[in-house]
Amino acid sequence: MSVKPQNFEEKLVWYTIILTYPIYFLGAQLVWIPALGFILAGCAFKRWWFQTKDTPESEKISIPLSVWIWIVGMLFIELTIFMSHMEFDLGIPKFVFTTVNNWARSWALMALFPLAGCLKIRPQVIYRAACILCLQSLILATICYFMYLLRIPSFSYVSPLVAFRGSASFYTVNLFDVGGDFGEARQFRLRLFANFANNLGIIGNIYFFLSSQEANKKWRWIGTIGGAAMVVGSGSRSTIVCLVVVPIASWLLTNFGWYIQLIVGLLSVVIGMIAPQLIELMQTAWDRVISGVRRSSEVVRKRLAEVTMNRWMEAPIWGHGVVEEKGPKYTEHMPIGTHNHWPDLFYLHGVVGFLAFTFAIVWGFVELTLKARKSAIAKTALNIYLVLLIATAAVDIQLASYLYWQGLILTGIAFKEDVPIFADRQTRTLSFKS
Protein backbone atom coordinates (compact mmCIF):
# COMPACT_ATOMS: atom_id res chain seq x y z
CA MET A 1 0.00 0.00 0.00
CA SER A 2 1.30 3.43 -0.97
CA VAL A 3 1.75 5.81 1.95
CA LYS A 4 2.00 8.90 -0.22
CA PRO A 5 -0.72 11.45 0.59
CA GLN A 6 -3.64 11.12 -1.81
CA ASN A 7 -5.96 14.01 -0.92
CA PHE A 8 -5.97 17.53 0.49
CA GLU A 9 -6.22 16.57 4.15
CA GLU A 10 -3.56 13.86 3.92
CA LYS A 11 -1.18 16.30 2.24
CA LEU A 12 -1.71 18.87 4.99
CA VAL A 13 -1.02 16.26 7.68
CA TRP A 14 1.93 14.66 5.86
CA TYR A 15 3.83 17.85 5.05
CA THR A 16 3.14 19.43 8.43
CA ILE A 17 4.70 16.43 10.18
CA ILE A 18 7.76 16.00 7.96
CA LEU A 19 8.35 19.77 7.89
CA THR A 20 8.08 20.08 11.67
CA TYR A 21 11.63 21.37 12.07
CA PRO A 22 11.42 24.12 9.42
CA ILE A 23 8.14 25.23 11.04
CA TYR A 24 9.83 25.11 14.45
CA PHE A 25 12.88 27.11 13.33
CA LEU A 26 10.49 29.78 12.06
CA GLY A 27 8.82 29.78 15.47
CA ALA A 28 5.53 29.14 13.68
CA GLN A 29 4.20 26.05 15.48
CA LEU A 30 1.78 27.90 17.76
CA VAL A 31 0.53 29.85 14.75
CA TRP A 32 0.25 27.12 12.12
CA ILE A 33 -0.85 24.06 14.14
CA PRO A 34 -3.99 25.68 15.64
CA ALA A 35 -4.79 27.06 12.18
CA LEU A 36 -4.37 23.54 10.79
CA GLY A 37 -6.76 22.20 13.43
CA PHE A 38 -9.46 24.70 12.52
CA ILE A 39 -8.94 24.11 8.77
CA LEU A 40 -9.20 20.31 9.02
CA ALA A 41 -12.06 20.37 11.52
CA GLY A 42 -13.86 22.94 9.36
CA CYS A 43 -13.51 20.68 6.32
CA ALA A 44 -14.85 17.70 8.29
CA PHE A 45 -17.84 19.58 9.68
CA LYS A 46 -18.67 21.18 6.31
CA ARG A 47 -18.65 17.83 4.49
CA TRP A 48 -20.71 16.19 7.24
CA TRP A 49 -23.24 19.03 7.24
CA PHE A 50 -23.74 19.20 3.47
CA GLN A 51 -23.68 15.50 2.62
CA THR A 52 -26.96 14.01 1.37
CA LYS A 53 -28.42 10.62 0.59
CA ASP A 54 -26.97 10.99 -2.90
CA THR A 55 -23.43 11.47 -1.60
CA PRO A 56 -21.29 8.45 -2.58
CA GLU A 57 -20.73 6.14 0.37
CA SER A 58 -16.95 6.47 -0.04
CA GLU A 59 -17.22 10.24 0.47
CA LYS A 60 -19.62 10.25 3.42
CA ILE A 61 -18.40 11.33 6.82
CA SER A 62 -19.67 10.20 10.21
CA ILE A 63 -18.85 12.01 13.44
CA PRO A 64 -18.65 9.51 16.31
CA LEU A 65 -20.31 10.11 19.65
CA SER A 66 -16.92 10.28 21.37
CA VAL A 67 -15.87 13.18 19.15
CA TRP A 68 -19.14 15.00 19.91
CA ILE A 69 -18.46 14.51 23.61
CA TRP A 70 -15.03 16.09 23.23
CA ILE A 71 -16.53 19.00 21.29
CA VAL A 72 -19.18 19.62 23.95
CA GLY A 73 -16.63 19.18 26.75
CA MET A 74 -14.25 21.75 25.29
CA LEU A 75 -17.15 24.17 24.75
CA PHE A 76 -17.92 23.81 28.46
CA ILE A 77 -14.29 24.74 29.15
CA GLU A 78 -14.87 27.87 27.07
CA LEU A 79 -18.02 28.55 29.08
CA THR A 80 -16.01 28.44 32.32
CA ILE A 81 -13.60 30.98 30.85
CA PHE A 82 -16.48 33.32 30.03
CA MET A 83 -18.14 32.92 33.43
CA SER A 84 -14.90 33.41 35.36
CA HIS A 85 -14.11 36.56 33.40
CA MET A 86 -17.54 37.92 34.21
CA GLU A 87 -17.31 36.87 37.87
CA PHE A 88 -13.95 38.61 38.38
CA ASP A 89 -14.89 41.63 36.22
CA LEU A 90 -12.08 40.99 33.74
CA GLY A 91 -14.22 42.27 30.89
CA ILE A 92 -15.14 41.13 27.38
CA PRO A 93 -11.85 42.26 25.73
CA LYS A 94 -9.87 40.12 28.20
CA PHE A 95 -12.25 37.20 27.58
CA VAL A 96 -11.71 37.45 23.81
CA PHE A 97 -7.95 37.64 24.36
CA THR A 98 -7.99 34.54 26.60
CA THR A 99 -10.16 32.65 24.12
CA VAL A 100 -7.96 33.40 21.11
CA ASN A 101 -4.57 33.06 22.79
CA ASN A 102 -5.33 30.26 25.23
CA TRP A 103 -8.46 28.20 24.63
CA ALA A 104 -8.21 28.17 20.81
CA ARG A 105 -4.57 27.06 21.01
CA SER A 106 -4.96 24.37 23.66
CA TRP A 107 -8.32 23.02 24.82
CA ALA A 108 -10.00 23.53 21.45
CA LEU A 109 -7.35 21.41 19.70
CA MET A 110 -8.25 18.41 21.86
CA ALA A 111 -11.63 18.38 20.09
CA LEU A 112 -10.69 19.78 16.67
CA PHE A 113 -8.05 17.20 15.78
CA PRO A 114 -10.18 14.16 16.73
CA LEU A 115 -12.87 15.75 14.54
CA ALA A 116 -10.26 16.02 11.77
CA GLY A 117 -9.73 12.27 12.17
CA CYS A 118 -13.23 11.81 10.71
CA LEU A 119 -11.84 12.90 7.33
CA LYS A 120 -10.38 10.43 4.83
CA ILE A 121 -6.97 10.32 6.47
CA ARG A 122 -5.24 6.94 6.46
CA PRO A 123 -3.33 6.08 9.64
CA GLN A 124 -0.51 4.67 7.50
CA VAL A 125 0.26 8.21 6.31
CA ILE A 126 0.63 9.36 9.92
CA TYR A 127 2.78 6.33 10.82
CA ARG A 128 5.27 6.87 7.99
CA ALA A 129 5.46 10.63 8.50
CA ALA A 130 6.09 10.00 12.21
CA CYS A 131 8.99 7.68 11.35
CA ILE A 132 10.51 10.31 9.05
CA LEU A 133 10.32 12.94 11.80
CA CYS A 134 11.83 10.48 14.29
CA LEU A 135 14.79 9.98 11.93
CA GLN A 136 15.28 13.75 11.73
CA SER A 137 15.04 13.97 15.52
CA LEU A 138 17.53 11.13 16.01
CA ILE A 139 20.09 12.93 13.85
CA LEU A 140 19.57 16.24 15.64
CA ALA A 141 19.64 14.56 19.07
CA THR A 142 23.03 13.02 18.23
CA ILE A 143 24.38 16.39 17.10
CA CYS A 144 23.05 18.06 20.25
CA TYR A 145 24.66 15.47 22.50
CA PHE A 146 28.06 15.93 20.85
CA MET A 147 27.64 19.70 21.22
CA TYR A 148 27.01 19.13 24.92
CA LEU A 149 30.10 16.91 25.29
CA LEU A 150 32.23 19.50 23.47
CA ARG A 151 30.68 22.28 25.58
CA ILE A 152 29.30 24.03 22.53
CA PRO A 153 26.26 26.05 23.65
CA SER A 154 22.91 25.55 21.97
CA PHE A 155 21.85 28.48 19.81
CA SER A 156 18.69 30.14 20.99
CA TYR A 157 16.46 32.90 19.66
CA VAL A 158 12.89 34.14 19.88
CA SER A 159 10.94 34.21 16.62
CA PRO A 160 9.43 37.52 15.45
CA LEU A 161 6.13 35.60 15.32
CA VAL A 162 5.92 36.20 19.07
CA ALA A 163 3.90 39.21 17.90
CA PHE A 164 0.99 36.75 17.58
CA ARG A 165 0.95 36.76 21.39
CA GLY A 166 1.28 33.98 23.90
CA SER A 167 4.22 33.07 26.12
CA ALA A 168 7.62 33.70 24.55
CA SER A 169 8.55 30.08 25.37
CA PHE A 170 6.23 28.93 22.55
CA TYR A 171 8.24 30.97 20.04
CA THR A 172 11.72 30.27 21.42
CA VAL A 173 13.98 28.04 19.34
CA ASN A 174 16.39 26.05 21.51
CA LEU A 175 17.32 22.44 20.76
CA PHE A 176 18.61 21.51 24.22
CA ASP A 177 19.13 22.83 27.73
CA VAL A 178 22.13 22.48 30.02
CA GLY A 179 20.93 23.40 33.47
CA GLY A 180 19.17 22.23 36.59
CA ASP A 181 15.95 23.26 38.28
CA PHE A 182 16.21 25.80 41.10
CA GLY A 183 19.93 25.52 41.77
CA GLU A 184 20.41 21.81 41.02
CA ALA A 185 23.42 20.38 39.22
CA ARG A 186 23.66 21.12 35.51
CA GLN A 187 22.40 18.41 33.20
CA PHE A 188 21.68 17.77 29.53
CA ARG A 189 18.01 17.80 28.50
CA LEU A 190 16.76 17.64 24.93
CA ARG A 191 14.04 20.01 23.74
CA LEU A 192 14.31 19.64 19.95
CA PHE A 193 11.01 20.99 18.53
CA ALA A 194 9.24 21.24 21.91
CA ASN A 195 9.03 24.33 24.10
CA PHE A 196 9.97 22.34 27.22
CA ALA A 197 11.84 19.09 27.80
CA ASN A 198 8.86 17.51 29.58
CA ASN A 199 6.72 18.12 26.50
CA LEU A 200 9.34 16.45 24.31
CA GLY A 201 8.96 13.37 26.52
CA ILE A 202 5.21 13.29 25.82
CA ILE A 203 5.71 13.74 22.08
CA GLY A 204 8.47 11.13 22.00
CA ASN A 205 6.17 8.56 23.59
CA ILE A 206 3.39 9.30 21.13
CA TYR A 207 5.75 9.08 18.17
CA PHE A 208 7.16 5.85 19.60
CA PHE A 209 3.72 4.22 19.57
CA LEU A 210 2.79 5.70 16.18
CA SER A 211 6.05 4.45 14.65
CA SER A 212 5.54 0.98 16.14
CA GLN A 213 2.60 0.52 13.73
CA GLU A 214 4.64 1.27 10.59
CA ALA A 215 4.47 -1.67 8.15
CA ASN A 216 8.01 -1.25 6.80
CA LYS A 217 10.39 -2.92 9.24
CA LYS A 218 13.30 -0.55 8.57
CA TRP A 219 11.20 2.55 9.10
CA ARG A 220 9.56 0.96 12.14
CA TRP A 221 12.92 0.45 13.84
CA ILE A 222 14.11 3.94 12.96
CA GLY A 223 10.89 5.47 14.24
CA THR A 224 10.75 3.61 17.55
CA ILE A 225 14.44 4.25 18.29
CA GLY A 226 14.00 7.92 17.47
CA GLY A 227 10.90 8.18 19.64
CA ALA A 228 12.63 6.45 22.57
CA ALA A 229 15.66 8.74 22.17
CA MET A 230 13.40 11.78 22.49
CA VAL A 231 11.84 10.39 25.66
CA VAL A 232 15.11 9.46 27.38
CA GLY A 233 16.85 12.64 26.20
CA SER A 234 14.08 14.77 27.68
CA GLY A 235 14.95 13.60 31.20
CA SER A 236 11.26 13.61 32.16
CA ARG A 237 10.59 10.92 34.75
CA SER A 238 6.88 10.48 34.11
CA THR A 239 7.37 10.09 30.36
CA ILE A 240 10.29 7.69 30.75
CA VAL A 241 7.99 5.58 32.93
CA CYS A 242 5.48 5.59 30.06
CA LEU A 243 7.81 3.57 27.84
CA VAL A 244 7.53 0.66 30.29
CA VAL A 245 4.14 1.13 31.93
CA VAL A 246 2.02 1.89 28.85
CA PRO A 247 2.78 -1.35 26.92
CA ILE A 248 2.12 -3.40 30.07
CA ALA A 249 -1.14 -1.60 30.86
CA SER A 250 -2.22 -1.81 27.23
CA TRP A 251 -1.53 -5.56 27.16
CA LEU A 252 -3.54 -6.10 30.34
CA LEU A 253 -6.42 -4.04 28.97
CA THR A 254 -6.59 -5.96 25.71
CA ASN A 255 -5.85 -9.53 26.79
CA PHE A 256 -8.15 -10.13 29.76
CA GLY A 257 -11.87 -10.15 30.47
CA TRP A 258 -13.97 -7.06 30.89
CA TYR A 259 -13.61 -7.04 34.68
CA ILE A 260 -9.80 -6.92 34.46
CA GLN A 261 -10.10 -4.23 31.79
CA LEU A 262 -12.36 -2.19 34.04
CA ILE A 263 -10.01 -2.48 37.02
CA VAL A 264 -6.90 -1.61 35.00
CA GLY A 265 -8.72 1.21 33.24
CA LEU A 266 -9.89 2.78 36.48
CA LEU A 267 -6.44 2.36 38.00
CA SER A 268 -4.91 4.10 34.97
CA VAL A 269 -7.15 7.12 35.46
CA VAL A 270 -6.56 7.23 39.22
CA ILE A 271 -2.80 6.77 38.84
CA GLY A 272 -2.75 9.63 36.37
CA MET A 273 -4.28 11.86 39.06
CA ILE A 274 -2.07 10.75 41.97
CA ALA A 275 1.14 10.12 40.02
CA PRO A 276 3.00 13.09 41.59
CA GLN A 277 2.58 11.55 45.04
CA LEU A 278 3.62 8.12 43.77
CA ILE A 279 6.69 9.58 42.11
CA GLU A 280 7.65 11.32 45.34
CA LEU A 281 7.34 8.06 47.30
CA MET A 282 9.54 6.23 44.81
CA GLN A 283 12.09 9.04 44.58
CA THR A 284 14.85 7.41 46.62
CA ALA A 285 14.76 4.18 44.62
CA TRP A 286 14.48 6.12 41.38
CA ASP A 287 17.62 8.17 42.07
CA ARG A 288 19.58 4.94 42.47
CA VAL A 289 18.45 3.71 39.06
CA ILE A 290 18.68 6.87 36.95
CA SER A 291 21.40 9.34 37.83
CA GLY A 292 20.89 13.04 37.36
CA VAL A 293 17.12 12.97 37.71
CA ARG A 294 15.76 16.14 39.30
CA ARG A 295 14.29 16.25 42.79
CA SER A 296 13.80 19.87 43.81
CA SER A 297 11.32 20.37 40.97
CA GLU A 298 9.02 17.98 42.84
CA VAL A 299 9.14 20.21 45.90
CA VAL A 300 8.05 23.20 43.83
CA ARG A 301 5.31 21.18 42.12
CA LYS A 302 4.02 20.02 45.49
CA ARG A 303 3.92 23.58 46.77
CA LEU A 304 2.22 24.78 43.60
CA ALA A 305 -0.43 22.07 43.92
CA GLU A 306 -1.00 23.00 47.57
CA VAL A 307 -1.42 26.72 46.87
CA THR A 308 -3.46 26.06 43.73
CA MET A 309 -6.02 23.91 45.53
CA ASN A 310 -6.30 26.45 48.34
CA ARG A 311 -6.89 29.26 45.85
CA TRP A 312 -9.41 27.16 43.90
CA MET A 313 -11.89 27.59 46.73
CA GLU A 314 -12.11 31.28 45.83
CA ALA A 315 -13.98 30.26 42.65
CA PRO A 316 -15.05 26.61 43.03
CA ILE A 317 -17.67 26.45 40.25
CA TRP A 318 -16.17 28.29 37.26
CA GLY A 319 -12.55 28.74 38.33
CA HIS A 320 -10.33 31.78 37.85
CA GLY A 321 -10.04 31.56 34.06
CA VAL A 322 -6.50 32.95 33.84
CA VAL A 323 -3.07 32.19 35.28
CA GLU A 324 -1.41 34.74 37.54
CA GLU A 325 1.68 36.27 35.99
CA LYS A 326 3.90 35.62 39.02
CA GLY A 327 3.50 33.35 42.01
CA PRO A 328 4.69 33.83 45.61
CA LYS A 329 8.21 33.17 46.88
CA TYR A 330 6.88 29.94 48.43
CA THR A 331 6.50 28.52 44.89
CA GLU A 332 9.78 30.05 43.64
CA HIS A 333 7.57 32.67 41.94
CA MET A 334 6.14 30.02 39.59
CA PRO A 335 2.63 31.15 38.52
CA ILE A 336 -0.34 29.64 40.37
CA GLY A 337 -2.30 27.37 38.05
CA THR A 338 0.68 25.84 36.25
CA HIS A 339 2.70 22.59 36.30
CA ASN A 340 -0.01 20.36 37.87
CA HIS A 341 -2.75 19.31 35.48
CA TRP A 342 -5.53 18.29 37.87
CA PRO A 343 -5.13 21.05 40.49
CA ASP A 344 -4.71 23.56 37.65
CA LEU A 345 -7.91 22.29 36.06
CA PHE A 346 -9.80 23.04 39.27
CA TYR A 347 -8.12 26.42 39.72
CA LEU A 348 -8.63 27.67 36.15
CA HIS A 349 -11.95 26.05 35.22
CA GLY A 350 -13.57 24.96 38.47
CA VAL A 351 -15.73 21.92 39.05
CA VAL A 352 -17.50 22.46 35.73
CA GLY A 353 -14.26 22.34 33.75
CA PHE A 354 -12.98 19.37 35.73
CA LEU A 355 -16.14 17.36 35.05
CA ALA A 356 -16.19 18.35 31.37
CA PHE A 357 -12.61 17.22 30.73
CA THR A 358 -12.77 14.13 32.95
CA PHE A 359 -16.00 12.87 31.39
CA ALA A 360 -14.61 13.31 27.86
CA ILE A 361 -11.30 11.56 28.51
CA VAL A 362 -12.85 8.72 30.54
CA TRP A 363 -15.53 8.13 27.89
CA GLY A 364 -12.90 8.02 25.14
CA PHE A 365 -10.69 5.77 27.26
CA VAL A 366 -13.48 3.26 27.83
CA GLU A 367 -14.44 3.15 24.15
CA LEU A 368 -10.84 2.69 23.01
CA THR A 369 -10.34 -0.04 25.61
CA LEU A 370 -13.36 -1.93 24.28
CA LYS A 371 -12.24 -1.52 20.66
CA ALA A 372 -8.55 -2.20 21.23
CA ARG A 373 -9.00 -5.98 21.50
CA LYS A 374 -10.00 -6.12 17.83
CA SER A 375 -8.37 -3.03 16.30
CA ALA A 376 -4.68 -2.14 16.03
CA ILE A 377 -5.64 1.49 15.40
CA ALA A 378 -7.73 1.62 18.57
CA LYS A 379 -4.91 -0.02 20.55
CA THR A 380 -2.46 2.63 19.35
CA ALA A 381 -4.97 5.34 20.27
CA LEU A 382 -5.39 3.69 23.68
CA ASN A 383 -1.61 3.88 24.17
CA ILE A 384 -1.79 7.60 23.39
CA TYR A 385 -4.51 8.05 26.01
CA LEU A 386 -2.42 6.19 28.57
CA VAL A 387 0.57 8.43 27.81
CA LEU A 388 -1.54 11.55 28.27
CA LEU A 389 -3.03 10.30 31.54
CA ILE A 390 0.41 9.56 32.98
CA ALA A 391 1.76 12.86 31.63
CA THR A 392 -0.79 14.77 33.70
CA ALA A 393 1.58 14.09 36.60
CA ALA A 394 4.09 16.54 35.11
CA VAL A 395 2.41 18.97 32.72
CA ASP A 396 -0.85 20.62 31.76
CA ILE A 397 -1.42 18.36 28.77
CA GLN A 398 -3.74 20.73 26.93
CA LEU A 399 -0.90 23.26 26.56
CA ALA A 400 1.11 20.69 24.59
CA SER A 401 -1.78 19.64 22.33
CA TYR A 402 -0.31 21.67 19.45
CA LEU A 403 2.70 19.34 19.64
CA TYR A 404 0.96 15.93 19.82
CA TRP A 405 -1.87 16.85 17.43
CA GLN A 406 -1.12 13.92 15.10
CA GLY A 407 -1.89 11.54 17.97
CA LEU A 408 -5.22 13.29 18.47
CA ILE A 409 -6.05 12.77 14.79
CA LEU A 410 -5.39 9.05 15.25
CA THR A 411 -7.80 8.94 18.19
CA GLY A 412 -10.45 10.43 15.90
CA ILE A 413 -9.71 7.75 13.30
CA ALA A 414 -10.09 5.09 16.01
CA PHE A 415 -13.37 6.58 17.24
CA LYS A 416 -14.94 6.51 13.77
CA GLU A 417 -13.78 2.94 13.07
CA ASP A 418 -16.60 0.38 13.11
CA VAL A 419 -15.37 -2.34 15.44
CA PRO A 420 -17.43 -5.17 17.01
CA ILE A 421 -17.27 -4.22 20.68
CA PHE A 422 -18.82 -7.48 21.83
CA ALA A 423 -17.66 -10.61 20.04
CA ASP A 424 -20.95 -12.50 19.98
CA ARG A 425 -23.28 -9.59 19.40
CA GLN A 426 -24.13 -7.29 16.58
CA THR A 427 -21.59 -4.53 15.97
CA ARG A 428 -22.36 -1.45 17.99
CA THR A 429 -21.18 1.88 16.64
CA LEU A 430 -21.08 5.12 18.54
CA SER A 431 -21.65 7.78 15.90
CA PHE A 432 -24.14 10.17 14.40
CA LYS A 433 -24.58 9.51 10.70
CA SER A 434 -26.36 11.79 8.32
Describe the overall structure.
- Keywords: Membrane, Transmembrane, Transmembrane helix.
- It is a multi-pass membrane protein.
- Residues 225-357 form the O-antigen ligase-related domain.
- The chain is mainly alpha-helical.
- The chain has one domain (8-52, 61-420).
- 62% of the residues lie in helices and 4% in strands.
- The protein is built from 16 helices and 6 strands.
- A two-stranded antiparallel ribbon has the order 1-6. The protein has a two-stranded antiparallel ribbon with strand order 2-3.
- α4 packs antiparallel against α5 (92-101).
- It is globular, with a radius of gyration of 21 Å.
- Residues 284-293 and 424-434 have low confidence and may be disordered.
Q: Strand-residue fraction? A: under 5%
Structural class, judged by helices and strands? mainly alpha
- Total DSSP helices: 16
Global Rg:
21 Å
- The coarse silhouette is globular
**Number of domain modules:** 1
User: How many extended strands?
Assistant: 6
- Biggest sheet details: 2 strands, antiparallel
H and E string:
HHHEHHHHEEEEHHHHHHHHHE
Question: Could you report the average pLDDT, rounded to the nearest whole number?
Answer: 85
**What is the terminal-to-terminal distance?**
30 Å
Strand order of the largest sheet: 1-6
